[in-house]
Amino acid sequence: MNSMRSFKHRNFRILYPASTASNIGTWAQRVAQDWLVLQITGSGTYVGLVVGLQFLPALLLSMQGGKIADRFNKRRTLIICNFAGGISATTLGLLVITEHVKLWHVFFFAFALGTASAIDAPVRQSFTAEIVGKADLPNAVSLNSANFNLARLIGPGVSGLLIAAFGTGPSFLLNAVSYLFIITALLCLRERDLFIENKPNLNAKISEAFNYVKARPDITAVMITVFFTATFGLNFMIFNTLMATKVFHKGAASYGALGSILAIGSLTGALISARLEKKRDPSYVMRGSALFGIVVAIESFAPTFTIYAMLLPIGGCIALLTLISANSMVQLRTDPAIRGRVMGIYLTIFMGGTPLGSPLIGWLSTTIGVRETMLVCGIITFTAAIVVYYKFKGRIETPASFLVGDVLETTYENK
Fold first, then answer.
1. Phi/psi zone of residue 42: left (φ > 0), alpha (ψ -120 to 50 degrees), beta?
2. Whole-angstrom Cα distance, residue 399 to residue 135?
3. pTM surpassing 0.85?
4. Element (H or E) spanning 9, and its range?
5. Which of 21, 94, 172, 395 has the most neighbouring CB atoms within 10 Å?
6. Contact present, 229 and 292 (Cβ < 8 Å)
7. Where in the numbering of this chain does the Major facilitator superfamily (MFS) profile domain appear (predicted)?
8. Domain residue spans in the chain?
9. Is-contact 306 32, C-beta < 8 A?
10. Cα–Cα distance, 380 to 388 (Å, whole number)
């Protein structure tokens, strides 16, 4: 099995390096944003709040983004979203460099960037199938995750060095420039090379996607598992910030290094996943989530910065193997006519818990301690995965050929 076969598609070859540049910029800004808030306030609660604000639009708008994906031209929609993200990053970077930035500016632009991302994400996810076709979709998802985590390996380290040398401003401007790469690549794609299985449907309704998911216990089980994993387990942005500064008393460079160290494991998981494309069943997702919860709990007991850093790649690898399988399974088992809207629901669940969980986790970290909060989050992640597995056991191997028409017909019969 060729783990790099998606590169045979011209459009994928054009978009992939541009996505790498864009992802590096995104991770550089995330590190700078958290560090900027910590500089202004010195509070983990505010770090959690700004992360929550950035992901709040995912809770509010991801399903609308999925609807847009099924209704309109995906490439044009992505160009608009990336242009909006670039404007947001540029403005915040200039405010920081000119020393006019206030806390409310960070909150506002975190929300603005989150709004563009909330529309972009389900469109981009469903656009992948049009770039490489269904046969190569699992491979493309794995390679895109490797891309994202290669950027996670590079971005935080670069941002940490920039912050240490020049402050947080250049990291925001780096992200702004990175948007130019992705916009240029999107403009260079050839429409005739796209694998478009269904024409845009101006009558697409979100309610149809809810009916579809409700009728699919395999997809429902994965989405519930992903919700708890993402909301309580995937909080390294908060945990690393507070562990580095409050527990181990480290500076910006060490904090940035933690992000890069975590990405080593995540990148490894993504590359392994490209060779394990058949591991796309719900039970695999739940077992992976349970194991990830155990690792998060163990990390809470790390006695030194070095040991904590050594444990991060393990958690990153397990998390990526689990979430890539979840993403691929949902896309492959969903009918193309409704894929955008289903991915909108998936991303609402995946990212939508963050606006609720991040402020709570930030507050708990300040109130009961960072280590204690990590332990609680690990236990919740583990327990949820086990409960979902036994609740849906025997009902989660639904055939992948389950189509939109089957669901709609059943829905109308039950009225």
1. left
2. 17
3. no
4. none
5. 172
6. yes
7. 1-396
8. 5-413
9. no
10. 12
Tokens of 67: 């609807």
| CATH for 5-413, options being 1.20.1250.20, 3.90.420.10, 3.40.1440.10, 3.30.420.40 | 1.20.1250.20
- Name the 3-class secondary structure at 261: helix
Which residue is it, tokens 């998911």? 213
Q: pLDDT 10s per residue in the chain (415 long)?
A: 567 788 999 999 999 999 999 999 998 998 899 889 988 888 777 887 888 788 788 778 888 888 888 888 889 999 999 999 999 999 999 999 998 989 999 999 999 998 998 899 888 888 888 898 877 887 888 788 778 777 877 887 788 889 888 888 999 999 999 999 999 999 999 988 888 766 666 666 788 888 898 889 989 999 999 999 988 988 887 888 888 888 888 877 787 788 778 878 877 887 787 676 655 678 889 999 999 999 999 999 999 999 999 999 999 889 888 888 888 888 888 887 788 888 888 888 887 666 677 778 888 888 898 899 999 999 999 999 999 999 888 776 655 444 444 444 433 333 3
129 with 144: CB under 8 angstroms? Answer: no
8 Å CB contact between 14 and 188: yes
Question: Distance (Å, rounded) from C-alpha 116 to C-alpha 248?
Answer: 35
